[in-house]
Design a protein that fits this description.
7 strands; 11 helices; alpha+beta
């Protein structure tokens, strides 16, 4: 009996080990990415009077090319990872949101120091979206491919806009943890509410003028929000406070857009006491 019991314990141990290894093989180990976010992403920082999660790029750059660093280990893992091994739609969606954010960070690190992701140092036209930025599974991808062809093209989930971060002040804040399929919906809902409650870069209601000023993200991707979300205002309504929802429903509210600050979300741009809002509005 004792021998049989011992054998059963050994079999159970091997089974647990097999399940663990299989689970790891099915997905990418995101612990290195999480470590980078905890180490270099600083929430609650004010840049140009806007609250952002700033990144310490100057220190992160030191990990570039350093063998065994979390940064290089993450890029190496992505370069050889086959995303087709991901089974669920949510896992795939979370994976590609993370890839976009890593690619945006890598774009800055590769060209640092720069003042914006739209710097001519990155792309002479000031539009980096079609520039190959990262390798996944042996194939190079641009930020535009990841956002439009994969995330929006395949999944058609407009909440993706609340997950991706373009390394800019007016963009949705970089989340301090990786996105994960099992909790993705919760993560994106939290991101949406946090962003849309920000009067500087999310949504601002002017009751006197009967105007709703939205982030220019809704202008940049107007076609998608019109096609998939019934228009930007209709899409954001469920994420707003109840009194704002009632006002928009009751009044004939006109649509406007907030200024978009393309300045880099760099910790070195932080101001403890804030600065004038429009002082550094790149706009293009």
């Amino acid at each position: 009996m004792r021998t049989a019991h011992g054998s059963l314990n050994v079999m159970c141990s091997f089974l647990v080990l097999f399940v663990s290894i299989t689970a790891q093989a099915a997905g990418l180990d995101d612990s290195h990415y999480e470590t980078l976010l905890k180490r270099y992403a600083k929430p609650g920082v004010s840049i140009d009077g806007v609250q952002v999660t700033a990144v310490d790029y100057a220190t992160l750059v030191k990990e570039k090319g350093k063998q065994g660093s979390d940064y290089e280990t993450l890029l190496k893992a992505l370069a050889s990872f086959n995303s087709e091994t991901l089974e669920s739609q949510e896992d795939k969606k979370a994976f590609w949101i993370n890839v976009y954010n890593v690619a945006a960070i890598k774009t800055i690190v590769d060209h640092y120091p720069v003042d914006s992701i739209r710097s001519k140092k990155i792309k002479w036209s000031g539009l980096p979206w079609d520039r190959k930025a990262i390798t996944v599974g042996g194939k190079e991808y641009s930020l535009g491919q990841i956002e439009n062809d994969i995330l929006l093209g395949m999944f058609k989930d407009l909440r993706i806009h609340f997950g991706i971060n373009c390394a800019s002040v007016s963009c949705v804040n970089l989340r301090q943890e990786p996105y994960r399929g099992a909790i993705l919906s919760k993560q994106l809902e939290e991101q949406a509410r946090e962003f849309l409650e920000d009067r500087q870069k999310g949504v601002r209601i002017d009751r006197k003028k009967k105007m709703a000023y939205l982030s220019q993200i809704f202008k940049f991707d107007k076609k998608d929000f019109d096609k998939l979300g019934g228009g930007a205002v209709h899409f954001v309504l469920p994420f707003l406070r109840s009194e704002e929802q009632e006002f928009i429903k009751k009044e004939k509210v006109a649509l406007g857009y907030l200024n978009y600050d393309w300045k880099l979300n760099d910790i070195k741009n932080a101001r403890r006491h804030g600065t004038t809002m429009n002082q550094h509005n790149h706009g293009g």
